[in-house]
Design goal:
472 residues; alpha/beta; TIM Barrel; 8-stranded parallel β-sheet; 7-stranded mixed β-sheet; 31% helix; binds zinc ion
């Protein structure tokens, strides 16, 4: 691969922006420097990426994806190969996906199986969190091994989905204690699944089977209640670090903000769908059109200013991370199960390709700064999940994961425009945003440029992660 200079752009980090050129040697960044610095090779001496007029940002880090995730008899429609290719198109150079364990299964078996699925398939670098769906003596005993031997520094628990992934409060407490003791981060799907299942059964019995009832049976109160409970359990477990995934409701954000203001080790992520899409405009569409937007936590009502509050949360750092929860299903042989009612529809929407573009739009509209865009989409996720400074920032010594982003262009999302996710529809169809991904470099290799995608499946490497850097 040799040396590359990214010349003429404005480098952006969480702490500011400046005119600088970036010198890459093989897989690493070796200099970030003034354009006239002696360290830079003369024009024509090495390969160049022209970043004139562009922002030069760290490769995106999406810490919440579900490639080829089994869900009942279905599987999410992006494979590791197609999903990481779509991520690359979207300026993402690192994903963190999930290995899974359920009741009766061995944790390390689940991890091994997930490795087998991803191995040789990924276009970009990848890592895993470990889902623990069956907390018992055996799975608890395996948790320290994850960080000591496997390079996995985070577990995920569920307060939702009784019968599959759900943990009760005692199980959650025990898992938090063990993970905290090992120096690991506990991620939480915070919704009260026991109460939600009652509401779902009542809705179906009453004939309320449309997609909108998926949202109406998962009210914000039950997200806030679970978030509150998770925060308290993390405190009781020894003030262990807690990370709330896919936060969607203002009421849940208030719980996180209160904990953070009290100095607690609580972080939260939100996702583009909660910042842009709503129950009325999307989930309430008829038939399969609405079913396309079934995901959990659900899209919230536009009348309750959740979106406004979430953007404010990103500004104030009460929301530390934007991830996608990328979990696509097609309309055909997937979302079309709405014919059997909303409870039969696989949960999840696709977004790994569009997070960088959609959150940059928040810069354009004045919701967040350019620096905050980089911080929430690249630097903080890398730091929280033990990948910084190798990932998430343009600094000497870091992996050469760099995106050249052109703010002068526009991008139309969806099948009529830019669409590389393995989906027969796009939740983002017809949305046009400012800016465009121009060039994507992953460990010193140009994997996307004006000529298309060059990264091949299998070039991405599994990342062994360190302990989380939390409290921020
Ligand atoms: Zn998820």
């Amino acid at each position: 691969m040799g040396r590359i200079v990214v010349r003429g752009g404005t480098v952006v980090s969480p702490s500011g922006r400046w005119r600088a050129d970036v010198l890459i040697d093989d897989e690493r960044i070796v200099a970030v420097t003034a354009p006239d610095a002696a360290v830079l090779p003369a024009a024509g001496e090495v390969a160049e990426v022209d970043a004139t007029g562009c922002y030069v940002i760290p490769g995106g880090v999406d810490v919440h994806t579900h490639m080829q995730l089994p869900m009942g008899d279905l599987t999410s429609s992006d494979t590791f190969a197609s999903g990481t290719a779509a991520a690359a198109w979207g300026g993402v150079t690192t994903i963190v996906d999930f290995a899974s364990q359920q009741v009766g299964e061995r944790v390390l078996d689940g991890l091994e199986a997930r490795h087998a699925e991803a191995e040789g398939q990924c276009v970009i670098d990848y890592a895993f969190h470990q889902t623990i769906g069956g907390v018992d003596d055996d799975s608890l005993a395996a948790i320290p091994t994850l960080i000591e031997r496997e390079g996995i520094s985070s577990i995920k628990l569920f307060m939702a989905y009784p019968g599959t992934y759900y943990s009760d409060d005692g199980q959650i407490l025990r898992a938090m204690q063990v993970a905290g003791e090992a120096g690991m981060l506990t991620m939480m799907h915070a919704e009260n699944g026991i109460a939600i299942d009652v509401l779902r059964a009542q809705a179906m019995a009453a004939g309320d089977t449309d997609a909108v009832h998926h949202g109406l049976t998962r009210p914000p109160e039950l997200e806030a209640e679970a978030t509150h409970r998770a925060v308290q359990l993390a405190k009781v477990a020894g003030n262990v670090p807690l990370y709330i995934v896919h936060l969607s409701a203002s009421q849940a954000l208030e719980e996180v903000a209160r904990a953070r203001h009290a100095g607690r080790n609580v972080l939260a992520e939100t996702c583009p769908q909660y910042l842009y899409l709503s129950l009325e405009d999307h989930l309430a569409r008829p038939g399969v059109e609405g079913a396309a937007y079934i995901c959990s936590t659900p899209l919230r009502s536009r009348h309750d200013h959740h979106q406004k509050d979430l953007w404010a949360g990103l500004r104030r750092d009460d929301l530390a991370v934007v991830a996608t929860d990328h979990c696509p299903f097609c309309l055909v042989d997937g979302k079309d199960r709405i014919s059997e009612g909303f409870t039969a529809v696989p949960n999840g929407i696709g977004g790994v390709e569009h997070r960088m573009e959609l959150i940059y739009q928040g810069v354009v509209t004045g919701e967040i700064t350019l620096e905050r865009w980089v911080e929430t989409c690249c630097t903080t996720p890398a730091r929280v999940f033990g990948m910084h400074p190798r990932k998430g920032e343009i600094v000497p010594g870091a992996d050469a994961d760099i995106v050249v982003f052109d703010p002068r262009r526009t991008t139309t999302l969806g099948r009529a425009g830019k669409h590389h996710m393995a989906m027969d529809h796009s939740p983002w169809e017809g949305i046009t945003v400012d800016g465009a991904i121009d060039t994507v470099i992953s460990r010193g290799e140009v994997i996307v440029d004006a000529n298309g995608l060059h990264g091949r499946p299998g070039r991405g490497r599994f990342l062994r992660r360190d302990r989380p850097a939390v409290l921020r």
